Every structure is written in structure tokens, then in C-alpha cells.
Amino acid sequence: MLRVENIDVYYGELQALRGISLEVPEGEVVTIIGSNGAGKSTTLRSISGILKPRCGAITFNDQPIHQRSTSDIVEMGIIQIPEGRQLFPTMTVLENLELGALNPKARRFKQDNLKKIYALFPRLKERLTQTAGTLSGGEQQMLAISRGLMSNPRILMLDEPSLGLSPLLVSSIFEIIRQINADGITILLVEQNVHQSLKIAQRAYVLENGEMAMQGPACDLLEDEHVCRAYLGL
Questions:
Q1: Residues spanned by the domain of 228
Q2: Most buried of the four, 5, 39, 99, 178, by CB within 10 Å?
């Protein structure tokens, strides 16, 4: 479904990614793990078209997308939920949700997607007229995910969805990610909560210093000595 092939990505003259390759098969949960500054968010930004690789290729259903605009990539169904939520705090919950359905393809499914979101997040339905900035941290993360779902994604890319949440809410967010995937949406997950992300993923990649250090079935990496020592504190 999604394939990243040997991409190099720079910020100015500073190289952030070196020869990164990965695959996201349709219907799976794939996770990218690594420490701060390893290149995880840069990888998502490159797929989204925010950053352009200097070499290599990114394809979606065998179509090259690495030179396409971000708006084109969104219309194809590749949606990123950014780190830090990046909501519009003075706008209402409903207004934030409606912004997710601005692209022409998503607009046709707006009402159906709203119903799905109300079923997935009943708390948001109760707060439709409340401004996003007055929501709790967990509710803001629910809204950020919901805004992405309003774009009618085929692949949902989540960047640190559990960041800053209490342990109870973290478990809830990962269960929601499971439900979204069970509804047929492919997931690419960047997450520092390595244990939780490896538990829900089928495949995992480990980034270290902008390079691909390891890859394989998530269940295997969960038991790998290096991963346990470096990322799980075992």
C-alpha cells in the first residue's frame, strides 16, 4: 500500500534521514520507534509531502507521491495527526471537526464520518459547542484523531498520540487506535511508548540517528534484547 524506498531527507544542509526504507501493508498497524531526534516525525512529514526527499521514492498503491503536494496526498487518503495535536483552540469542537472534511472527497462523507466519530467518542458529541482550548488533554487528543478521521483516511499516521497523557488515558488511546484499525483503516504509528505500540502493531521499525537500525514483526522486536535494553528499560 505505502512504500518508502531509500530516502534521504535534509533540513537545509543537515541530513535528518539516511537511506530510510519501510512498507505499510494495507489493513495493518505499523509502528516506528526510536528515541527523540531519531527521525520518526521527519519520516511522517516526508510521507505527508511537507518535506521532500533529495533522493529515493515514496509510493502509494504503486503511484509515486514524493514530489506531490501535501493537499494532493491528503486527497489520496494519507492523513497525519501531528504531535502536539495542533488544534484551533478558539474554535469549537464541531468547527475543528468540520475543518477535517475540507477536501472534496472527504466532504461527501462528512455526515457519515461525524456519526462514526460520535459513536467512537461520545464525550466529543457532548462538547460540540465547547472551544477546543478548554478541553482536557485527553479530550484534545480525541479531537485531533477525530479531525483526521473526518478526512476519510485510508492510512492514518499518528505522531506521539499518547504524549502528555495519564497512564489510564494512554491505555484508552491505544484501544481507540485498535478500533480504528479494526474498522479498516491502515495505521502508521510513531510512538515513544514502545511497549504499547509494539503490542498493537503487526510490524515495527527502529530508527536510530536517522537510519533504520532494525525491522521485523512487532512481536519479535518486543522480545529482542537490544529493544528491551534500549527502549523498555529491561
A1: 1-77+155-160+186-234
A2: 39
